[in-house]
Amino acid sequence: xxxxxxxxxVLLGVGLAMDAFSVSIANGLADSEMNKGRMxxxxxxxxxxxxxxxxxxxLLVTExxxxxxxxxxxxxxxxxxxxxxxxxxxxxxxxxxxxGKKQGSDxxxxxxxxxxxxxxxxxxxxxxxxxxxxxxxxxVGFTTAHYNSLQALLxxxxxxxxxxxxxxxxxxxxxxxxELLAGxxxxxxxxxxxxIGIEIWAKGxxx
Length: 207
Fold this sequence. Notes:
Shape: globular
Radius of gyration: 18 Å
Number of strands: 0
Helix content: over 70%
Order of helices and strands: HHHHHH
Oligomer: single chain
Mean pLDDT: 77
Low-confidence stretches: 113-119
Number of helices: 6
Number of domains: 1
């Protein structure tokens, strides 16, 4: 495994995991008595989806590049646009969330009560969370189109493992600290993905 593949995959994993991290914080906040097995199953679900989506995206884009020869030169541009969109969305969500917390803290305090008890996270709700927080990772297959099958598999595995540990951390933070870091995590993830998109575009166009 090359150092470049490892570093890029880890950074992609961190950036892509920020949505799942924020959701994990919320899940941890909703269940302060969550045991380790439950935490592992939730984090493992997010990690599994984050592994599958980039691999599926890689399969789609490599097959398209084989069939349509003109498609290959467009890949760096598509990767740039997709990661700018995904990263920009994370940035926007993080900024909106931070502003909302500042403006809504008094209202939340005033409305606290017994009706605030969270609903139990069901299997299907967890599946929906997994899909919702990983759907962007499907587009990341465009960024790994130049990998061979083994490299793509390793990259997807690294992204999944990074997601697993980040989500476990999110669940622990949620149980203890609430949602203090959620918005900031989205901003960090957005900046990372935008940076990777620019790097991939520059390599594909100029080198």
